[in-house]
Structures are given as C-alpha cells and as structure tokens.
Amino acid sequence: MRGKYFDCNATTPIDGSVGENLSKWASEWGNPSSIHWAGRGPKLLMREARQKLASYLGVSPLELVFTSGGSESNTTVLKSILKSSSRRHFITSQVEHPSVGKTMLALAAGGARVDYIPVSRQGVLDLDFYHEKLSNDTALVSVMTANNETGHIFPIPQLAQKAHSVGALFHTDAVQALAKIPVLLKDWQVDYASFSAHKCYALKGVGLLYARKGAQLESLILGGGQERHRRGGTENVLGIAAFGHMAERFSQLEKNSVTRVRELRDYLEQRLFQEIPEIVVNGVDSLRLPNTSSLIIKNVDGETLLMSLDLKGFAVSTGAACSSGSPEPSPVLLAMGLSRTEAQSSLRISLGSYHTQEHVDEFIATLKVVVERLRRLHDDGICHQGGANV
Ligand SMILES: Cc1ncc(COP(=O)(O)O)c(C=O)c1O
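Above: the input record for the complex with pyridoxal-5'-phosphate. Below: its predicted structure, written as tokens.
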C-alpha cells in the first residue's frame, strides 16, 4: 500500500525499524524526570536520541529542545521573541505554514507589526521587499527552509545574514527540509530552527526546536521545568527514542533524496508532460525539494481528482493536509499569483524514500485515465463535485 502513498509531505509512513523497536523502548515506562531507578532508562533513551539528532545537525545537544511537533516549535519561538524583545517588528513570508502564519496574526493582535515577503509566480521570495522592510526595530525574521506545498527552497543563509546585519534574530521552519536536503544550521547561522519527527519516518507528536547557544527562549508550556526550563511537560519518551533512532539514518535518507528520489521526481514530471496534456509544474525552474511536485492540471477540479484517485487506492494532496476538506483554494498558491481556478486545479505529489519507478508508472497510468474522464465530464458541463461516481 505504501507504494500508492504519494503524500509524504503530509506525513511519512513509519519506518519498519521503528516498529521493531517500539516494545523495547516502551519497556522504559518511567518518568525521565524521576531520580529513582525507573527514571534512569527513559532518561538514557532521551540523552541518546538528543545526541544522535545533535550529531546529524552538527549542533550541541544542549541547543536542542524536544517539543510536540513542528507547530509547537514554531509557536514557541515566535511568542518567545514577542515577550523577550524590546523590538516590535517581525518579518515572515506569505507562504509559511499556518503555525507561523496564524501565530504572526496573534503577535500582531498583541501589538507587533508584521510584514509578509511576497513570492513570485515561480515561488521566489522578493528580496528587495525584504531588504526594504528590515530595520533596527526588527525583532525576528521567520522564513521556512522549504515550502510544504510547492517544495520551493528559500535562501536561508543570505536571509539570516541580512537579519543579523540589523541586529534581528532569525528562525527557520525546517520541517520539510529534514532528511531531504542538507540542513546546515551552523553554516546558515540561524538562531532558531523547527523540526518534526513524523515527516521523517518516525512517530507523530514529537518535534524539535534548535535554539542557538545564548539565544533567548521562553517556554510556551509552563510546567515542571523539563528541557532545562525551555518546555514544560513530561516528555514523549517513545516518540523521542524513535526520532533519535531515525536520526542515525538521516544521512542515508538525505543522500537518497538528492539523488534517487530527485531522479524519480524528474522522471514523474517528464512522464506527466508526455502522457497528460495541459499540465503545469508550479515554479518548475526554481530550487525545489527533490521529492515534491506541485501541479496545475487544467480543467480538472483538484478535490474531485483527489477523491477519484483515493477510490483507486492512491493518496495525494491538493495542498496542505491541514487545509484539505476546506473548499478554499490554497493560500500558498494564491500568494504565488495563481488564479482561484488554477489553485483549485492543483495537485501535490510528494514522494518517499521507498518509491520505485514501477510505483510512479502505475500512478501515472491511473492519473491519465482519471484526468481524461474528468475532463470529458468537464467538457460535457456535468457537475462532478464530490467525485464519488468518477
Ligand atoms: C512546513 C511545515 N511546518 C510545520 C508543520 C507542522 O508540523 P507538526 O505537524 O509536527 O506540528 C508542517 C506540517 O505539515 C509543515 O509542513
């Protein structure tokens, strides 16, 4: 079934080796904060996981805070800076994940000024706008490393350097980048970065927040002083152990992503162009994650297409997973200048490390049949909203 799952930016399947180790990790059921015997095992599991993640990221284990996921890591940084900085200005992009976008709205309601960097039709950030808006009142710039819907990669080292030149801090949401492209936190000189375990073949409900040594961090969740007072609440030991376990495979996954998965994605796009007329890949010439393809399939409703593919066992997305089910077109695609109709005809395909050419061929063959059928219905003027019969 995994071979028909083309929605790895929403979440990845859990790696088989994680499943094999679960009962071993679960046998360490003590509270890692306990100082008696039951706490020692889980504490050790957490120490090892933190060490493995730090080693992959090239940072100190002390610079890492475990959270419940990417959303919490993002929210923690933004709210912490509003509290601790005397500066009142924030900069982000128009295409961030809602955990940044909506938190920025909350900061604005709390007295901050927020500027949103526009993107071009090709998904490229408007750097002139960014440079114009930066000032010595800018507290924090938050720009994602790679976009979850289009896969576009942003120039984090340059953005961070510019932010620092006016004394602002820099945060990147690197949730979609981890284990897909190199994440070089120290070279990039970012102050904060967010990660999520369930995008990398580990478990849901665990995230990571990198806070550079010396960078201020106020806890979002107040509690028993866990994570060196940077995140209250008893830690998700099982999920953390799984995340650390996968970190030992990130180098391999990353290598596979930038070579084999990229070739497979390029093969998929080439086959799509050959087999299905009137398909556009959003921002095809811009720097993109190796696994992601954001398409406009003209004269086809994306939601109907998704449901038709689902009936045939294929899983794809029309945009961010959290916004599917909503009839509104993707705000990310609208920000790129797509019309509502184009955005509503969009489909995101995101490959995983396990996909093969046979999986892609099988998908294309099905997509071709479904698209032809929906286009015929479209030409006949038949309303096919709901898609259950197509
Ligand atoms: C770019 C990006 N940031 C943050 C998140 C949120 O991560 P989590 O689901 O772990 O809260 C996601 C998940 O879709 C994402 O794609």
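Notes for the reader.
The first strand starts at residue 64 and ends at 67.
Residues 250-275 form the longest helix (26 residues).
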